[in-house]
Write a structure and sequence with these properties.
Length: 2024
């Protein structure tokens, strides 16, 4: 059965519980639980963390704690009964734990470790506190440490400051705001000082002086383990001050036996002492504990002969020291004893024994000997604090051990009455004695006795040290053979006071013989009396005593015999007539010195003092004696304070008339002496005396009379010193008066009460009289008044003993009222007066409500006067805060309405005025004080007070002024941050008081200033205040931790909501006056609605509807609301306010309201517009504040900027965002985009002289100046972005302006700039960018990207894969789509991010430039990739059935053209796609375009050779011709013939007749052009290349004959084309791919590989590819369908092309390849690059986007025919910057079905090519893996003269050439996939551009190396040796001067684009190349006549070379390249 618990109510979880039972409550270790019920070992209850979830948990998992239960039952609450500090530590540690881990994550390691240390300390201190074993002082100390650490941690973690009082958190409801403010200050101070609050709070005025706390050392000797002595020892411990070189304490003596134990067995474990009464000053001295060890035994320790064994001497042995400074720290921190070992050092020379401790301290090691071992005295020490009573109470164990109290030599800081002491300390200093005829010096022992006047020896009056009983005789220690001994031994003489007078000391000197008898022979004596004849004691000094001779027989029985003799020099002077016949003769040569120090409360060494104490002995001298008291030293007076006071009052009683005034003066002197800081701590002695010992019952009458007499004379006297002294002594005089009256009243049963009262009243009249005197003329009077005012508040407590509270209050009121007002008295007097008032307020009198009602008016009057004049503000604030503190305390107990009313009337207005003044000066300290006073007052005010306040205003103007003041103060309070951010308690309380006050005042505002008396200023002030209030950081609970939020809500609720309701109701009260606040309050109200508190938003958003409505009524529109709202929204959202919820709520609430309005349409459109702006602003903010990439930020900014311009037409905002965008571009180094962005602003300006105001960073200037500055900046950015063509028009525009102004200097400058730009265009290398189309699909994308597609301009060197990686890193959540099809709705609407990326080809607008023959390629290349608005990508697909033999018949192209909103480049690197168009290109059209492009390319190339634009090297032409002729013979265009000239085709497609004719004509033209080409080739061909030329002629004949039947008229050949045509004579097949085996002969890194890889380069797939080739992956750009029909199967051409066919390759070529190179690579090699290929094979511009389409597996190991053709078709025209309007097929259509073959002609050509390979210089480029089957050879590298070539190398040697293949361009897919020779790319230029534009095919893994390769001689690889031209270093950086120098050669894309390249519907091209023209660039020939093609020199700079831009990476690339060479 579950039963409610009685005791078990609260506990802590000591083991985590997983709650794995029904109804189980999951609990974590350390959680606290409230227990409700129990049942058989289980509890049911809730966790304090989650109070709403009830459950069960095992009882043994809970540690129960005590708690108070209130409201028992279902809703009971519990309050833990533990110490509040413990509770706080627990909560704080839990809060810190979370933050502590975050420190580690944020790498704040230093703070992390510090905090860990502090947390461990807190846990440990908390454990100590919970243990319950600490004393009260220890508890206090532990709490102090805890709070210091808590505050330290809170400050360093940025948490709130906790205000405390006595280490406990204060409740702000229980104290006044002023006190709370002070506590915050002191807590802050204690954090900074790391000291407790106790030390930092200032002493309040009039606080009684505290007794100084004495310190005590507890010392205990554990053992003396240094037992080599073998004799008894005495050990003396004392405290020694090194600086003063003297002992400061008595000695503590321990007597030990020869075993080191105590001689008295009872003393075991009780050898301990307490060195008492050390002041704080003593603790700062350099103190040591010194231990002297005296042995008792033979004269010499190691000589048994010296002295008989029965005689024992005290002999010095050793000394030990311990520095207290060194150990003080360690013993202060712990509460128990700590052990120390003291080494005992022995003295080397006994004569220096008295200095041994100093020598040890100074470490004069020659003078002492260290012990052989570490052992010595083991002592323990403990430091205790407090008076002796407290020590006895707190440490009873110490006193139970029989501790010896060891006092200071001299008095402690304070001597209490009744503390009687009478000790004389005598130090045996030194002696000088005669040798006495002996050969050796004496061993002298001194014996001392204390004798009374009658000669009797006083018993037990000599103490060698505490810890041992006193004795009657003292024997000094003996120094061996020393006639001038120095002892330095201190003896205490505790002689009873009654025996002191008449006593004397006798010193007897004996020689201790070490002969056999060992007797001690007396040889002299000395003596000294203790008191002089005049009754004073022996002075504290060194006394040199006379030594008198005597012997053992001398008798001292009659001490009178020697007492008559002089004892010392002073004595001798006193009695000169001494008879010489006395028995004792003085030994004139011998002397003996002692020093004395008296510590006595009864004996004095001062004659005047003695005379006063014995005044009755001199009755006639009393007046003189009283007068001389002033000359007695203060020490003596305080020592005999009680006796002196007793004497004075006795004298007063004896003769009042005669001695009254003198006694009064003496009393004043003594009282004022105690005011001296030196004797201040003796005041408690005086208090104790008055309370317990004072007996002058009649004294009061005389004291009152004298006091009054003094005051009455103050107006007359010029010298007022004695009056001022009396005023200063007022407090104690009143104490004596009152105590005397009490004693008298007690003795007489209250007689003469009336006389006493009237005399006091008269006295007060005199006081008032003194204060009312005008002191301006007399400075002395000012001091008298000041002295009186200072002392006055101290007498209240005394008066309260005799009078009622009201009576005393009346006295005080009269006195304070009699002071002149502020205006008339000086500055210093003001301060004194206010200090007196302050002490009055702090006095006990003021705490009574009866007295407060009387005193408050006069106090407030004075404060009011000062505040009005802004004087003494700090003192006034102190007084006020004391008053508020008292009133707050009183209000908790009783009624304070009347007092608060007084304060409101007197202070409220002046407080506000003062605050406004202070705040304007920013004095934060004073501001804090006064703010706390104002808040205290407002907090005390109730409804009635507010009502009275508002009713009391005479006019509305007064009320208005008051409201404006208070609202202004409140506003400043929130704006200025008077309280630091971490004063959360203070800030929340402030807010609470403000909101309460505002609620009271708002009704007055509404009532008085709404209707006819509407006042805009007051209302505006009110609204501003409310807005500021709601926006306060301290009220934004969303940012607080859950625990803190709950705490605040429980205490205050959400004050923002309270204020929002108030604000809304006041807005509604405005009525028609609302229009005054439009648009002014729109921004502030918008700020309020953006506060993330749903309720506030719901209340406030409808106000905007109201505003729109009122403006609509007034103006017929709400343009102002609209404009202001949009303006303010921007700045507020950018500050971080607002969120998605707000946007939705804003739209929802306003649309709902607007629905009912007549103007709903405009309203709805406005709300929609604002909502859309908000979407963009939120996106923009999220991008900016997150770690977003530049791209996202730029996109976001562009989006927002366009919105401002196009949708809401906000020009200023638009311009602001233009500049923000420009800055972002500059940061990302997008200089061209930055220029275009600034151009937007520039275009808004005119060339006019209109003045413009200062704006952003622009100064105020004319429009012309601003526009000029902008133009210059834009031109500069275009220059940095290498977009000189865009800068030139601006240069011209500026030139026109300068010319019109005749500013020739600027004109010259701008013209030169323009000229430089033209030079740059012609000379500098520029990289062509890639373009990528990106689709952003899914709702998770930012608003401006969501479900849109963009085209992006890639960065330098950026390929598709890199771009794709970049996009995925920018959108890490995004998923890359693997197909290019348009996504369906499920993807568009899903909550995810999908990215679809592929490369696209630009379609230039400026076709004219590109078609001009004479335009250099460098110029054209700019127009190919700039100002582009259209892009396209192609996707091949099949229509109808596929022809296995010839797939061209059914292969169509799907071409998508994308049109952008703006052309690229522009203000962004990417723009949105505005329109997409889809067209299908038929197979025949495709073929026409390909052949036409090839013809154009040939014509251009031939033309360049004819006109010597290409210099010397014929290789490029050879390749081009070979490619076309060989392909035509073995496949090429024959495939087209087969497909389209077939009768079936013509029959089925009657509409295509015209196109077929066109194709035929183009083929004829090709034959014609080839004939011209061969003729040119004949002319330039190198002798060594003749066989190649012959083969070309042969193959041309074959080609001609193959076309002869189809196309009659080809039989007439050009004469240049003679020669045999054999089937084997093709050199390089133009459209035929090359077989993998054959290409493997050309290693991927060899120059030969480069050679083949013009972007249209030759490559083939062999028909003999092994079946493994079926696994190769072909990447194309067109989409791959998921059905079988859409998969393209690669199949080798059956007709030709394999290495095993009959073509006669030279044997060395074939055999030189290692076997592994000839076969297909092993499987892992083939797949190695498959993923890389997917991304990395982005297409050339003309290719479809390859990265998306994995190619199909081959059928039977052969590529399907269509695919071969398709691939070649896609890839053929690799030159990307050729005419992109033509389809891929147009450029790449092969000429015959055999296009996929590589004829043996290739093999014949290879030796010729390889002959030059070793000496080619080409730039290193990173490898780029291509899929198997796509290889290309590059001829660029071979344009040097053949005569320079070294002997031919076997093909295998080429594999070590230092050239990596050049990767495919990311945007030209064809080059990646096919090697057909594209006419369109321009022959010469294609060579130039090929390094970067085309791709070098190679297998995805190079063939493994073999011994064959390694056996090649090393010099075969050395490019430098093979080259005769100097090696040009390859650089990657655009900035290197020599590279730039090399750029000045012929442009990278020379005059290549043929004029005939036009869209397919234009005319046919001319039959022959156009007229030649000469290049404008100089030839770059070296001495040997070898032309190094510029391409080789500077191609690495080109865009397509996939090199990173940064310098570090350049170096890496170079190293990697060289490493690659080595590897290969």
């Amino acid at each position: 059965m579950w039963s409610p618990t009685e005791e078990e109510k609260y506990g802590v979880v000591i083991c985590s519980f997983r709650g794995a039972v029904p109804q189980g409550l999951v609990l974590e270790l350390g959680e606290t639980v409230q227990i409700l019920e129990k049942c058989e070992g289980w509890y049911r209850g809730v966790s304090i963390k989650k109070p709403n979830v009830k459950g069960i948990f095992p009882a043994n998992y809970i540690h129960l704690k005590k708690a108070i239960v209130s409201n028992r039952g279902q809703y009971e609450t519990i309050i833990p009964l533990e110490d509040s500090v413990v509770t706080e530590v627990t909560a704080t540690l839990q809060e810190w734990a979370v933050l502590w881990k975050q420190l580690y994550v944020k790498h704040k390691v230093d703070l992390f470790y510090k905090l860990r240390h502090v947390m461990n300390e807190l846990i440990d201190l908390r454990r100590q506190l919970l243990s319950g074993h600490l004393t009260q002082d220890q508890v206090r100390e532990v709490k102090r440490h805890l709070t210091v650490r808590l505050d330290w941690g809170n400050e360093h973690l940025g948490l709130d400051l906790v205000p405390r009082k006595d280490f406990e958190v204060v409740d702000s409801d229980q104290i006044s705001v002023s006190d709370l403010y002070k506590m915050h200050l002191s807590s802050r101070h204690s954090v900074q000082q790391s000291t407790s609050q106790v030390d930092t709070i200032r002493q309040r005025h009039g606080e009684a002086c505290r007794m100084p706390v004495p310190h005590h050392f507890f010392l205990s000797l554990k053992s003396f383990t240094y037992n080599t002595i073998g004799e008894d020892t005495d050990v003396f411990f004392s405290l020694y001050d090194v600086r003063e070189g003297k002992q400061i304490s008595e000695r503590f003596m321990v007597r030990l036996n020869k075993n080191g134990g105590p001689r008295n067995p009872e003393k075991i474990d009780r050898m301990c002492a307490l060195f008492t009464d050390l002041s704080s000053k003593d603790m700062k001295r350099d103190l040591y504990i010194v231990a002297h060890v005296i042995r008792i035994g033979r004269m010499l320790l190691n000589d048994s002969k010296k002295g008989p064994p029965h005689l024992h001497y005290r002999r010095p042995y050793g000394c030990a020291v311990l520095s207290i400074m060194d150990v003080l720290q360690s013993i202060s921190e712990i509460k128990e004893e700590k052990d120390f070992v003291l080494k005992v050092y022995t003295c080397n020379n006994e004569n220096e024994w008295c200095q041994i401790h100093e020598n040890i301290i100074r470490k004069s090691s020659t003078k002492y000997t260290a012990p052989s071992s570490n052992y010595g005295l083991i002592i323990s020490l403990q430091l205790l604090r407090g008076d002796m009573e407290q020590i006895r109470r707190e440490n009873p164990l110490i006193f139970n051990r029989g501790v010896s109290v060891t006092r200071k030599l001299g008095f402690p800081d304070v001597i209490m009455p009744g503390d009687i002491r009478n000790d004389l300390y005598l130090t045996l200093e030194k002696g000088d004695f005669e040798r006495g005829g002996k050969s050796v010096q004496k061993n002298i022992e001194v014996t001392m006795y204390v004798l009374y006047a009658d000669g009797e020896i006083l018993k037990d009056c000599i103490s060698l040290g505490s810890g041992e009983p006193s004795r009657s005789a003292y024997h000094s220690f003996v120094l061996y053979h020393n006639n001038s001994p120095r002892w330095g031994e201190i003896i205490k003489l505790p002689i009873p006071i009654d025996r002191f007078r008449g006593s004397h000391l006798r010193f007897e000197f004996r020689h201790c013989s070490t002969k056999d008898k060992g007797e001690k022979k007396l040889f002299g004596f000395a003596f000294t009396p203790l008191m002089r004849d005049d009754g004073t004691t022996l002075s504290d000094d060194i006394h040199e005593l006379y030594v008198y001779k005597c012997d053992e027989n001398s008798t001292f029985n009659n001490h009178a015999l020697y007492l008559g003799l002089p004892c010392c020099k002073e004595d001798y002077n006193g009695c000169p007539n001494i008879p010489s016949s006395l028995i004792f003769q003085r030994s004139t040569k011998e002397t003996f010195s002692v020093s004395t120090q008296l510590s006595s409360t009864k004996l004095t060494q001062n004659v005047d003092l003695l005379a006063l104490l014995k005044w009755k002995a001199y009755p006639d001298r009393v007046m003189d004696i009283l007068g001389r008291l002033r000359h007695v030293s203060g020490e003596e007076i305080v020592k005999f304070l009680q006796d002196i006071l007793d004497t004075l009052f006795v004298v007063l009683d004896d003769n009042t008339e005669k001695y009254g005034l003198l006694v009064f003066q003496s009393l004043v002197f003594i009282i004022n002496l105690l005011r001296d800081s030196k004797y201040f701590h003796f005041r408690p002695v005086m208090d104790t005396y008055i309370q317990k010992h004072f007996a002058g019952a009649l004294a009061y009458k005389e004291l009152i009379r004298c006091l009054k007499w003094y005051m009455d004379r103050s107006a007359e006297l010029v010298r007022q010193d004695h009056i001022q002294e009396a005023m200063r002594a007022l407090e104690y005089l009143f104490k004596f008066i009152v105590q005397s009256r009490i004693l008298y009243s007690r003795a007489t049963c209250g007689m003469e009460e009336e006389q006493f009262r009237s005399s006091i009243q008269e006295l007060f009249q005199s006081i008032r009289f003194v204060l009312s005197l005008d002191s301006r003329s007399s400075e002395t009077l000012i001091f008298t008044q000041a002295a009186l005012l200072n002392s006055f508040p101290a007498i209240f407590d005394e008066l309260l003993q005799m009078f009622t509270v009201q009576e005393v209050a009346e006295f005080v009121r009269g006195t304070l009222g009699s002071m002149p007002s502020t205006v008339h008295i000086g500055q210093s007097m003001d301060v004194v007066k206010l200090q007196s008032i302050a002490r009055t307020v702090d006095s006990r009198l003021f705490s009574f409500s009866e007295s407060r009602r009387i005193l408050l008016p006069v106090v407030l009057h004075h404060i009011h006067l000062h505040l009005r004049q802004q004087k003494e503000l700090l003192i006034c604030s102190g007084i006020l805060s004391s008053i508020f503190s008292i009133i707050k305390t009183s209000s908790l107990e009783g009624d304070v309405v009347e007092e608060v009313e007084m304060m409101v009337e007197s202070l409220l207005d002046v407080l506000l005025q003062t605050l406004l003044t202070i705040m304007s000066k920013s004095q934060s300290q004073e501001a804090g004080e006064y703010v706390s006073c104002l808040l205290s007052l407002l907090r005390q005010m109730s409804d009635t007070h507010f009502q009275h306040l508002l009713d009391n205003f005479q006019s509305k103007d007064e009320l208005k002024e008051f409201l404006l003041k208070i609202f202004c103060v409140f506003r400043n309070l929130m704006k200025m941050g008077v309280f630091p951010r971490d004063w959360m308690v203070m800030r929340l309380l402030t807010s609470n008081i403000i909101v309460t006050t505002v609620q009271y005042l708002s009704s007055a505002l509404h009532k008085n200033f709404t209707e006819t008396d509407f006042d805009f200023k007051v209302w505006n002030s009110y609204f501003s205040l409310a807005v500021l209030f709601i926006n306060q950081p301290s009220l934004q609970l969303e940012n607080a931790t859950p625990a803190k939020r709950k705490k605040i809500l429980d205490k205050y609720g959400d004050m923002r909501v309270m204020m929002a309701y108030e604000l809304f109701s006041m807005w509604q009260n405005l009525g028609e006056h609302k229009i005054h606040f439009i648009p002014g309050m729109i921004g502030p109200f918008l700020g309020v609605t953006l506060v993330p508190q749903p309720e506030v938003r719901n209340i406030m958003i409808p106000i905007f509807h109201d505003m729109m409505d009122w403006e609509q009524r007034k103006n017929g529109n709400f343009k102002q609301v609209e404009a202001e709202l949009i303006d303010k929204l921007d700045s507020l959202v950018s500050e971080g306010k607002g969120d998605e919820n707000y946007r939705e709520l804003f739209s929802l609430l306003l649309l709902e309201k607007i629905e009912q309005e007549t103007w709903r349409e405009t309203g709805i459109s406005f709300v929609t517009s604002v909502t859309r702006l908000m979407e963009r602003l939120l996106d923009y903010r999220d991008c900016m504040k997150g770690d977003e990439t530049e791209n996202k930020k730029i996109g976001c900014t562009v989006n927002l900027m366009n919105f401002y311009k196009s949708e809401i037409n906000k020009e200023e905002m638009y311009i602001r965002y233009i500049h923000k965008l420009c800055d972002m571009h500059l940061q990302a180094e997008n200089y061209t985009e930055a220029a275009f962005t600034l151009l937007l602003y520039c275009e808004l300006l005119q060339w006019e002289d209109r003045p413009l105001r200062e704006f952003l960073h622009y100064p105020s200037q004319s429009e012309w100046q601003r526009k000029e500055g902008l133009c210059r900046k834009i031109i500069h950015y275009f220059n940095k972005g290498k977009s000189w063509e865009f800068g030139i028009p601006l240069c011209r525009e500026l030139a026109i302006q300068y010319e019109s102004l005749y500013d020739y200097q600027s004109l010259s400058w701008i013209r030169k700039m323009e000229a430089t730009y033209y030079d740059n265009i012609m000379e500098q290398q520029r990289l062509e960018p890639e373009f990528f189309r990106v689709g952003f699909y899914g709702r998770k994308f930012p608003f401006f990207l969501r479900n849109k597609e963009y085209v992006c301009r890639g960065h330098d060197y950026e390929r598709l894969e890199a771009f794709q990686q970049r996009m995925l890193s920018e959108f890490p959540q995004a998923i890359a789509m693997q197909h290019p099809n348009h996504p369906d709705d499920s993807i568009l609407q899903c909550d995810a991010q999908y990215l679809q990326i592929y490369a696209v080809t630009p379609i230039p607008d400026n076709i004219d430039v590109l078609q001009m023959d004479r335009v250099p390629d460098r110029i054209k290349s700019f127009y190919r990739v700039n100002n582009i608005r259209k892009f396209r990508y192609d996707r091949p697909f099949h229509k109808g059935p596929k022809d296995k033999e010839n797939e061209f018949k059914s292969l169509w192209i799907e071409r998508t053209t994308l049109t952008l909103t703006h052309s690229l480049p522009g203000i962004s690197r990417w723009f949105e796609v505005e329109r997409r168009e889809l067209v299908e290109v038929s197979p025949l059209e495709n073929a026409i375009q390909v052949v036409e492009n090839k013809n154009q390319e040939l014509r251009t190339l031939i033309s360049q050779y004819q006109h010597k634009q290409m210099h010397g090297n014929i290789n490029l032409l050879s390749m081009c011709l070979n490619g076309v002729i060989d392909a035509a013979v073995n496949g090429g265009i024959a495939r087209y013939q087969e497909a389209f000239f077939d009768k079936d085709y013509i029959t089925k497609h009657p509409g295509d007749a015209e196109k077929i004719t066109q194709l035929k004509e183009l083929m004829q033209e090709q034959v014609h052009v080839l004939g011209v080409g061969l003729a040119v080739h004949e002319k330039f061909v190198h002798p060594e290349m003749r066989p190649l030329h012959k083969k070309l002629i042969d193959q041309f004949q074959m080609m001609r004959s193959s076309l002869y039947h189809e196309l009659p008229g080809l039989d007439k050949l050009s004469p240049a084309c003679s020669g045999n045509s054999t089937p084997r004579s093709n050199v390089l097949v133009s459209h035929g791919p090359m077989s993998p085996e054959s290409i493997k002969l050309v290693h991927r890194h060899s120059p030969l590989n480069l050679l083949g890889s013009v972007r249209h380069s030759s490559s083939s797939l062999s028909s003999h590819t092994s079946s493994e080739t079926g696994n190769l992956v072909i990447l194309t750009d067109s989409s791959v369908g998921e059905t079988a029909e859409d998969m393209y199967h690669m199949q080798a051409s059956p007709s030709t092309s394999s290495l095993s066919s009959t073509h006669s390759a030279p044997s060395q070529m074939i055999n030189s390849a290692p076997s592994s190179a000839r076969g297909s690579p092993s499987l892992p090699d083939k797949y190695r690059h498959s993923r890389e290929m997917m991304m990395l094979l982005p297409a050339h511009r003309d290719r479809p986007s390859s990265a998306m389409y994995p190619a199909a597996i081959m059928e039977n190991g052969q590529p399907p025919n269509f695919q071969r053709a398709f691939i070649q078709q896609m890839i053929g025209p690799c030159k990307p910057c050729s005419d992109p309007n033509l389809s891929v097929a147009d450029k790449a259509m092969p000429a015959a079905p055999s296009s996929w073959s590589l004829d043996s002609g290739t093999r014949e050509a290879l030796p010729f090519l390889s002959a030059h390979a070793g000496s080619i210089l080409a730039p290193p480029v990173p490898p780029r893996s291509l899929s198997h089957g796509h290889y290309s050879l590059h001829f660029d590298a071979f344009h040097h003269q053949l005569s320079d070539a070294p002997p031919a190398l076997p093909a295998r040697t080429l594999r070590k050439s230092p050239l990596h293949p050049i990767p495919a361009s990311p945007t030209s897919p064809q080059s990646g996939l096919d090697g057909s020779n594209s006419t369109l790319s321009g022959s010469a230029s294609s060579g130039v551009s090929s390094l970067s534009e085309s791709n070098f095919g190679h297998s995805s893994e190079p063939p493994p190396r073999t011994d064959t390769m390694d056996s090649v001689p090393s010099q075969a690889w050395n490019t430098d040796e093979d080259l005769e031209t100097p090696y040009l270093p390859v650089r990657y950086s655009l900035s290197e001067p020599d590279v730039l120098e090399s750029l000045k050669s012929q442009p990278c894309r020379s005059h290549s684009a043929p004029s005939g390249v036009i869209p397919q519907d234009t005319m046919d091209p001319p039959a022959l190349p156009p007229k030649p023209y000469h290049s404008r660039l100089p030839n770059m020939e070296n001495e040997e006549g070898m032309i190094i093609e510029d391409d080789d020199k500077h191609r690495p700079l080109h865009r397509k070379v996939s090199q990173p831009v940064s310098g570090g990476k350049e170096e890496q690339a170079r190293v990697a390249w060289e490493h690659g060479i080595g590897e290969q």
